Amino acid sequence: MHTLYIYDHCPYCVKARMIFGLKNVPVQLKVLLNDDEATPHSMISKKMVPILAKEDGTFLPESMDIIRTIDALDGKPIVTSSPGNSKLDPWYAKSRQMVYQLCMPRWVQAPLEEFATQEARAYFIAKKEAMIGSFQQHLANSPELIRLADELLKELDVLIDSLEFVHGELSEDDIHLFAVLRSLSIVKGITYPQNVEKYRQHLSQISGVPLLDGLAI
After folding, report:
1. Would the pLDDT of 82 be above 80?
2. CA 59 to CA 49: how far, in whole Å?
3. Do the beta carbons of residue 66 and residue 23 sit within 8 Å?
4. Which of 63, 81, 143, 151 has its CA 20 to 30 A from that of 29?
5. Residue 77 and residue 71 in contact, taking contact as beta carbons nearer than 8 Å
6. Residue 187 pairs with which residues in a beta bridge?
7. Which residues lie below 8 Å from residue 98, measured CB to CB, with a gap of 6+?
8. Domain ranges in the chain?
């Protein structure tokens, strides 16, 4: 059986996890502590996840490479490439900073395995505050950030072509978009428009990757 090394919160890990559910391929998930640098270094000589430990003993990083590898195992790939200049690209660009500012301060407060120790939490906070600024400041700004999230989700609602897949058939855009929506599920108080709500629930169900609504902060 394949083993996938992940962090539960990590959107890139969410992407890699999805293909195993979508293709009904058994996988063992192993969650690393966020400050564990030795384990990934021993496999791929750098600290990053996801990492797929293949049945032949080799290791494969990079979420999209993992997806394409697992998707092709049976010779019947189901995930189509995203169209060039995807209509979602501007939405991703507008939403990225908001997602980071809302989600990062909440992930580290949630009971996720990668943050099971004080050292792991401190490691994450130090790394990510250097990237996006004070977690406490972003938490204090939650009302404005949630208002922005609600606005952007209304924009997204009209971009979804079907309630199953954003372009009507399963594509890489569904992988990318679900990872964003799963990230936002850690945020309490966000309002999901009807199409977006049905879409995120559908993708969660068929991929086997649960949303974090029950842990929302």
Report:
1. no
2. 11
3. no
4. 81
5. yes
6. none
7. 145, 148, 149, 152
8. 2-71, 89-215
Placement of tokens 């009302």 in the chain: 143
For the ranges 2-6, 102-106, 165-169, 189-193, which has the lowest average pLDDT? Answer: 165-169
**Could you report the per-residue pLDDT of 149-170, keeping only the tens digit for each?**
999 999 999 999 888 999 889 9
Domain 89-215 has CATH 1.10.240.10: no
Element (H, E) at 154: helix 142-157
Q: What is the pTM of this model?
A: 0.96
Residue with structure tokens 């991929």? 207
Reading the block at residue 79, the tokens are: 């995930």
* CATH fold for domain 2-71: Glutaredoxin (3.40.30)
Which two three-digit tokens encode residue 51? 């990492």
What six digits make up the tokens of 3? 């083993």
In the chain the first and final C-alpha atoms are separated, in Å, by: 35
CA dihedral sign, ordered 172, 174, 179, 184: positive
Q: Which residue has the tokens 């199409």?
A: 195
How does strand 27-31 pair with strand 2-6?
parallel
Nearest to 97 by CA among 58, 131, 120: 131
**Which residue, 43, 38, 41, 37, is CA-closest to 3?**
43
